[in-house]
Amino acid sequence: MRRLILALAAVAPLVTIALLVAGRPWLGIAVLALSHAFVLVPTLVPNLQWLGPVVTRFSTDANEVWLTIDDGPTGDTPAILDVLDRHGVRATFFLKGDLAAAAPEHVRAIVERGHTAGNHSQTHPSGSFWCLPPAALAREIDACTDVLGTITGSKPLLFRAPVGMKNPFVHPLLQARALALVGWTIRGFDAVSDRGDDVPRRIVERLEPGAIIVLHQGRPWSATTMSAVLEQVGQRGYRFVIPDVARLKTKR
After folding, report:
1. Percent of the chain with pLDDT over 90
2. Do 63 and 239 touch, CB atoms closer than 8 A?
3. Is 70 a catalytic residue?
4. For the chain, which residues make up each domain, given as ranges?
5. pLDDT tens-place string over residues 147-182
6. Which segments of 25-167 are extended strands (E)?
7. How confident is the model at residue 36, as a pLDDT?
8. Which class does domain 57-249 fall in?
9. 231: left (phi over 0), alpha (psi -120 to 50) or beta
10. Does 36 qualify as catalytic in the annotation?
11. Which of 235, 224, 231, 230 is nearest to 196 (CA)?
12. Mean pLDDT value across residues 111-138
């Protein structure tokens, strides 16, 4: 699908010019707009896999889910780790490289307490990651990998794009670095606001075996909201696991 989309994007300007010369400008504009849409839509829509695979779940025959936590390490990392310990939960933290470099003790605590660390880019350019050129994308990916590797002693195997957006250059860069692009199955939109029980409700309503749940840290309500989510998910008979890479799935 990716090759077809890129081929269409390359040919569309020529087709448009030909149609303009032939006196069919609106058809030419439609062809050009369609080619742009085929690139832009999978870039801006998280989990859409037209440009390449995105992990959205994992294989399991049990009531198991995977908790992923974005945007750390932040000052609430110790509190988040305490919440996870109280509930007996292990999670994957997708970390920003610049924050990790500024607080390596938090990264070490994450790993020492049984969790795993993933790459969430170096500076988390949420407004521009989707349109960065290859060299800039490579710097964002590699710098974070280097920081986490230096702190933990091992390089991450997983990458989550800022806000889940990715452009046509992202997948080849990740493939060359043996990094899996991880999306999610369920999100509670806890990064935006905490409205009482809204976040846990959004998550438990969509629970299913093999689901990937995404939550965030660094907000005033993060630890409290996370505790409520873990309690309600547990009450519904699900347990949290960190799946092996071999169990990750890009399709249902």
Report:
1. 79
2. yes
3. yes
4. 2-44, 57-249
5. 999 999 999 999 999 999 999 999 999 999 999 999
6. 57-58, 64-72, 92-95, 116-119, 158-159
7. 66
8. alpha beta
9. alpha
10. no
11. 224
12. 97
